[in-house]
Specification:
The complex is a heterodimer of chains A (172) and B (447). Chain A is of the alpha/beta class. Chain A contains five helices and eight strands; from the N terminus they run βαβββαββββααα. Chain A has helices at residues 17-28, 54-64, 116-134, 153-158, 165-171; strands spanning 3-9, 31-35, 45-46, 51-53, 70-75, 79-80, 89-91, 97-101. In chain A, strand 1 (3-9), helix 1 and strand 2 form a beta-alpha-beta unit. Chain A is globular and about 45 Å long. Chain B is an alpha/beta fold. Chain B has three domains: 3-137, 3-Layer(aba) Sandwich (Rossmann fold), CATH 3.40.50; 151-315, 3-Layer(aba) Sandwich (Rossmann fold), CATH 3.40.50.300; 319-442, Helicase, Ruva Protein, domain 3, CATH 1.10.8.60. Chain B contains 19 helices and 16 strands. Chain B has helices at 15-27, 38-43, 64-74, 89-97, 110-141, 151-163, 180-189, 208-216, 233-236, 252-264, 290-295, 301-307, 324-339, 348-356, 362-376, 388-396, 402-416, 421-428, 432-442, and strands spanning 7-11, 31-35, 52-56, 79-84, 102-105, 170-174, 198-202, 217-218, 230-231, 241-245, 266-268, 275-277, 281-286, 310-314, 345-346, 381-382. In chain B, helix 13 packs across helix 15 (362-376) and helix 18 packs across helix 19. The chains are: A alpha/beta (172), B alpha/beta (447). The interface between A and B is medium-sized, with 19 and 22 residues.
């Protein structure tokens, strides 16, 4: 069975890890190996933006966990790429590494009351979405498919956590 | 447009920006390429190479603004989005004035970028659809329904081609049923106004007050029953062409109103005060002798000169008999399609009758005759008995006397050879002098 390294980088929702493990197995047939890496992130931190550079984070994960078939980094840090104000996550298209930021998935970020169910739903969708890219999937036109592009949290809420048949076929 | 059909080029001197955007767009399935400076882009740019360009405004060697100008010269359809920093917003505004689609400030909000690209694609698709539709309109309607290979009709086509691109007022003259409206439509469809409507008004079909309301529209409450404000035909023709058929039947009062709107290109709706400005081309048509009406004081001379700027005379069908077989077969095909039945062949005897008929109702009469023949005719061909006018004539008019038969036969042969005496005499197997005598005897006249 292919192995996935799941790196928890300042990720606080650890109670959800068993669910994530189950989803990785169900959706991608991945066996999860959990790590809390001790890496220095100062170089990828932008003081001006108070955000972390997601592409560099992917590079770090690849450097230290390249033995795994897939590497998924989960973090509560807010992520960016230089040209965009933020990203929910980033992945290597048809590669190994993916990163998901939970920062903007918490309802509290938008001044709303805590809602664990909603947060979990968003997190699973983003994990499926970014890992989907590592399997070579591009954004899907089917608005219910988890590979549908979402540039704000409302768009994440609209789509389902599942892959449409065409996308699922490519993962298998 | 599918995402995979959309070609995006990112032009930015910063590698990191190029890579991030390339990665972002690749995930959406677009065809993405990038260039580090403007010269790389211009080196082999050609129309249609890229659908959308994202151009950084600040670049060494050549600025994004300069690049925008040059791109628009080479490929005006390419959508250019300017990427700028907050400090350069005034320059970005300048870019918009120079033809940029929009601008985004760095760092770009993903949601904004996503919408911007979607809007750009929508615009590009609409433009492509528009071009395709215009092409198909041009192909479909250029000379729709206007058929004829006779020298007379070729002359009409020539005149249409000459006058259509100008904005000149045109008057079409000809007998009823010669296809004056088709000619008006052909002029409109070959003019720069073709993407706007052509509004036909049959002036002879309305009373004076109704025609006034029909042409100028009316305000709510202008008269009993005017429950709503209604646009008139003139207003509806704004940007396009107004076609006034049977213009000779317009009343003196309406002639004054019409003249005013033609001179000022503005009018007020019936019962209203608001001045409505309009821009339209006027084509009129008549089968009346307008000159005589002017002489008799029934038609205003000034309006006559306003309308009669460029005249096209449509010959009656009997003056272009060589077009009859082409027209007849065209109508057979048309009605076969409409009636969903196989087209019938026109038998030689039936064609002979069609060629010799006087056609007082012109092409419209021929069209009706063929429609009837297609209804009653049995495959494989249309026979003389399927033609309506033959039945009427057989029953009513043709006498059995030898003189009547001879007169009728000579008239037919003369018509067939378009009054070429030598050819008609040869066909009748008599000499030309005898033929002249017969013409004189029976009082035969060229139609």
């Amino acid at each position: 069975m292919p192995k996935a390294a799941v790196l928890l980088i300042n990720f606080n929702a650890t109670s959800l890890i068993p669910i994530i493990e189950k989803k990785l197995y169900q959706n991608f047939n991945l066996q999860m190996h959990q790590f809390i890496p001790n890496i220095d992130l100062t170089e990828i931190y932008s003081e001006v933006r108070d955000q972390y550079y997601s592409t560099k984070l992917l590079e770090y994960s690849l450097k230290y966990y390249n033995d795994y078939d897939k590497i998924l980094s989960l973090t509560d840090f807010d992520l960016f790429v230089p040209v965009l104000t933020f990203v929910f996550g980033e992945a290597q298209l048809n590669g190994k590494a993916a990163v998901v930021s939970a920062h903007r998935l918490y309802p509290e970020f938008y001044g709303l009351p805590q809602n664990e169910e909603l947060f979990l739903s968003r997190l699973i969708k983003e994990i499926n979405h970014e890992l989907g890219h590592t399997y070579g999937l591009r954004h899907c036109q089917n608005f219910e498919c988890v590979m549908h592009s979402s540039s704000n949290v409302d768009e994440i809420d609209i789509k389902s956590e599942n892959f449409c048949d065409r996308c699922k076929e490519k993962i298998i | 447009m599918n995402n995979s059909d959309v070609k995006i080029l990112i032009v930015d001197d910063e590698q990191i920006v190029r890579d991030s955007l390339t990665h972002w767009f690749e995930e959406d399935g677009y065809q993405v390429s990038s260039a580090a400076d403007a010269f790389d882009v211009l080196y082999n740019l050609e129309p249609g190479k890229y659908d959308i360009m994202l151009v950084d405004i600040k670049m060494p060697k050549m600025s994004g603004l300069e690049l925008l100008e040059k791109v628009k010269e080479i490929d005006p359809e390419c959508i250019v989005i300017i990427i700028t920093a907050y400090a350069s917003v005034p320059s970005a505004v300048q870019a918009l004035k120079n033809g940029a689609f929009d601008y985004v400030t760095k760092p770009i909000d993903p949601d904004e970028l996503s919408h911007l690209i979607k809007n750009a694609i929508k615009q590009k698709s609409l433009k492509k659809e528009n071009i395709a539709m215009k092409t198909s309109i041009d192909e479909m309607f250029s000379f729709e329904g206007l058929i004829g290979e006779s020298p007379e009709m070729k002359k009409v086509f020539e005149l249409i081609k000459i006058v259509a691109p100008q904005d000149t007022t045109v008057m079409i003259r000809g007998e009823s049923g010669t296809g004056k409206e088709l000619i008006a439509r052909a002029i409109h469809m070959n003019s720069p106004r073709r993407y706007y409507p052509i509004i036909p008004v049959n002036c002879g079909a309305f009373t004076e007050t109704l025609l006034e309301s029909e042409l100028f529209g009316h305000e709510k409450g202008a008269f009993t029953g005017a429950q709503y404000r209604r646009k008139g035909k003139i207003e509806m023709a704004n940007g396009g062409t107004l076609f006034l058929d049977e213009v000779g039947s317009v009343s003196p009062k309406m002639q004054v109103e019409l003249l005013r709107v033609l001179e000022t290109k503005q009018f007020t709706r019936v019962g209203g005060n608001e001045i409505v400005k309009v821009d339209f081309r006027l084509i009129s048509a008549t089968n009346e002798n307008l000159e005589k009406l002017v002489e008799e004081g029934k038609f205003r001379e000034d309006l006559y000169y306003r309308l009669n700027v460029f005249t096209i005379y449509v010959p009656p069908l009997r003056e272009r008999r060589s077009d009859i077989p082409i027209l007849a077969n065209y109508f057979v095909q048309k009605f076969a399609r409409q009636m969903n039945k196989p087209p019938l062949k026109i038998s030689d005897e039936a064609m002979e009758i069609l060629l010799n008929h006087h056609w007082p109702g012109n092409v419209r009469e021929l069209e009706n005759a063929i429609e009837r023949a297609m209804v009653v005719g049995k495959p494989p061909e249309i026979k003389p008995s399927d033609l309506p006018f033959l039945i009427e004539k057989n029953n009513i008019t043709i006498s059995d006397s030898l003189e009547a038969v001879e007169k009728n036969h000579i008239q037919k042969v003369l018509n067939k050879y378009e009054w070429n005496i030598s050819k008609a005499a040869a066909a009748l197997e008599i000499d030309r002098v005898t033929l002249y005598n017969k013409i004189k005897k029976y009082g035969l006249k060229k139609n």
